Amino acid sequence: MSTKKSGLIGLAAALILILAGCGTVAEPEEQAPATVQAVAGSPIPQLRLTGQAVHRLGIATQPVRLAHVTVAGQARLRTVIPYSAVIYDNDGSTWTYVSITARTFRRQRITVLVIQGSIAVLSQGPAAGTPVVTVGAPELLGTEYNISGEE
Amino acid sequence: MGDEPARRDGPFTRTVLRLSGRWLADWTGHPRRAWALAGVLAVAALAVVPQLGGRSLLPTLQDRDLLLQVQTVPGISLPEMDRLTAAVSRSLRAVPGVTSVGAHVGRAVSSDQLAGVNSAEVWITLDGAADYGRSAAAIKSVLRGYPGLRADLVTYPSDRVAQLATGANEDLVVRVYGAGLSTLLRKARDVRVMLSHVPGVVNPVVRPVPMQPAVEVRVKLPAALKYGLRPGDVRRDTTTLTSGLIVGNLYEQSKIFDVVVWGAASTRSNLTELGNMLIGTPSGRPVPLKDVATIAIVPEPTVVTHDDVLRDVEVVARVAGDPGPVAAAVKSRLAAMPMPYEYHAEVSGNATVRHSDLTRVLAYGAAALIGIFLLLQAAAAGWRRAGLLLLSLPLSAAGGVLAAPLAGGIWSAAALTGVFAVLALAVHAAVQLGHRIHVVEQAGQATGSDAVLAAARERAVPLAGSALLTAVVLGPAAVWGSVAGLEFLHPLAVTMLGGLVSLAVTQLLVVPALLVTAAGRPPEPTAPPEPAAAPEPA
After folding, report:
1. B169 contact A CB<8A
2. Under 8 Å CB-to-CB from B414, ≥6 apart: which residues?
3. pLDDT greater than 80 at residue B323
4. DSSP code string of B32-49
5. pLDDT at residue number B351
6. Helix, strand, coil percentages, rounded to 5, for chain A
7. Which one of A70, B46, B302, B389 has the fewest beta carbons within 10 angstroms of its own beta carbon?
8. Which chain A residue's Cα is nearest to B78?
């Protein structure tokens, strides 16, 4: 009787184990293509992408330039960035993604004075020489707003 | 053939009769063994519990044409969306098993889709020979490699079904209807405050309305007046120059082309150029738009949905406890809430629907159970016997429950159908056995346990025969596996095959043994009913 009982319990335990095993499907852990890292003392996080993600999104950068621009009749040396590097937020504020390293990016506030063709003339923004993202910036914004994965 | 005096039993019948006779004699002598086996089957039937719920009941159809729905950040430009979709398509073409990839971005002028520039649909065709699950996993793995976009891999049928079955997933949804978004949001916040005071409502939130940046041109009335412009003039000119205006049609080779007046691309490509756009005035001297209007980027809803010509904003919440009274309380409080003219609110959600669904299903189930019990009682002419037969039903289906994980779990319409089919067979077998026992007793051939054994022997052949035949029919579908075309049949076959095994064990061995125990003393081991078991042909 006791052997029968223990046999029964063993069978039930095996059954539960088998069923529990069915629930968990072993899936290889994949590295997230992008991580959002909080920056101390700032509401704007820093984005770190994998090399593959940078390649897939086709992210391209160009340095901020100084150029002689005529605004309202006044020709002056001003900082300019490609218009494609300008990002508008919902409230109309203007930003650009600064490339800190080849794979880390951070949004920075800019003030656009005027747009001339494919050039945005800035009155405030990153210093000349800073690389800014000209291709793939909306995807970076989407990463920051956590638009990713599956629904 | 006709000259044979008696019908000869075939080898199948002889084998079944011999085996069942031997086993019955064996098992009825040891009621404890029968109870133990019943216990094992009962534990196996409990395996249904961890498998319940969670997923959709519908099986995933292995449609070789997959639909990928891509979403990116609102406000993205069409060229950027084109570039991204092309990049995704290129990556997908490199996935083994994918034969072709096509895509469309945004929304056509007269499309029926509710989609903006930030959404795209990619159509993927899989090779007929490719492994479906592996290809789908590879595609998903590629998509996970793209940050900043959301992708859903669906098939066209599942997408259509999902659209039809789209009910609110929340327990409680209060939808505020009206015309103006700001008023709607204000009233929605009021509703949220009201909901937070209703007992049983948990965590009410106003569902955020997705926004995107949009250019707003607001006419400066005094400045416009100075140039003799009315607000309508500015709006008309600006709209024509930025969005175009169809002014006629061209016909060429029986094709129709719209003729559109539109500003040159450079004049509407950015805010500065937009401000420099020239607006015609009555004096004949055009004036830059920035002189008569403010141009700014403001948030606008990405999608403006209308239900019965009214826009709506949703307040959603979960419900703790019995949802019926909570929904009623919310309705009465909502009726008492003041609403502006042409604004109103409605309550929906699972709390108002599923509650009645579940009670109805449970009521039907209970009625069916009582009906089965009465039927068994009528057939077997004994309450105790009927009770035992009723208890045997879930045991009969235990094998199906155990086999279900092999075919994707019990929680699918197909697997459940298999289990219910086995249950139906079990009910049939139980009614037949009960009735047979009653008939044997009525005819005075035997009583008590002898009657049970005689009836069990008689029923053994038809039961084993029908089980075997069903198994043969279902066998190929179970062996073939989950391939395209068998998405429904495969789980059904697997659960039914498993169920047939437990059905045979329960109805051929356990039930007769237990009925013998219930009927009285088991027959003397020295006098097994062997002689009558298998009438050997002469």
Report:
1. no
2. B59, B407, B487, B488, B489, B490, B491, B492, B495
3. no
4. HHHHHHHHHHHHHHHTHH
5. 66
6. 25, 40, 35
7. A70
8. A138
Contact yes or no for A115 and B405 at CB 8 A: no
Structure tokens at B475: 């066998």
Q: Which two tokens stand for residue B65?
A: 């044409």
- A139 vs B508, higher pLDDT: A139
Partner-chain contact B91 A58, CB within 8 Å: no
CB B35 within 8 A of CB B392: no
pTM metric for this prediction: 0.66
pLDDT tens figures, B286-314 = 999 999 999 999 988 887 778 878 888 88
Residue scoring higher pLDDT (B252 or A16):
B252
pLDDT reading at B81 higher than 90: yes
3-state secondary structure of A92: coil
Are B150 and A147 within 8 A, CB to CB? yes
The Cα B304–Cα B371 span in angstroms is: 53
Residue A106, CB half-sphere, CA atoms under 13 Å: how many?
14
Q: Residue A97 pLDDT > 80, yes or no?
A: yes
Using CA atoms in the order B330, B331, B336, B340, what is the torsion angle rounded to 10 degrees? 100
What's the CA gap between B452 and B515, in Å, rounded? 7
Residue B16: pLDDT over 50? yes
Q: Tens digits of per-residue pLDDT, A60-83? A: 999 999 999 888 888 889 999 999
For chain A, the farthest-separated pair of C-alpha atoms sits apart, in whole angstroms, at 104
Any A CB within 8 A of B211 CB: yes
Answer whether residue B538 shows pLDDT above 50.
Answer: no
Mean pLDDT across the stretch B81-96? Answer: 92
Please tell me the distance in Å from B452's CA to the nearest CA on chain A. 27
Measured in degrees and rounded to the nearest 5, phi and psi for residue B537 equal -70, 145
CA distance A109 to A114: 15
Residues in chain B: 538
Q: Which of residues 76-95 of B touch A (CB under 8 A)?
A: 76-77, 80, 83-84, 87, 91
> In which band, very low, low, confident or very high, does the pLDDT at B220 lie, cut at 50, 70 and 90?
very high
pLDDT in tens, B176-190: 999 888 899 899 999
Which amino acid is present at B256? I
Rounded distance between C-alpha atoms, residue B442 and residue B196, angstroms: 68
Is the CB of A147 less than 8 angstroms away from the CB of B212? no
Tell me if A8 and B39 make a contact (CB, 8 A cut-off): yes
CA distance B326 to B304: 30
- Cα separation, A113 vs A111, whole angstroms: 6
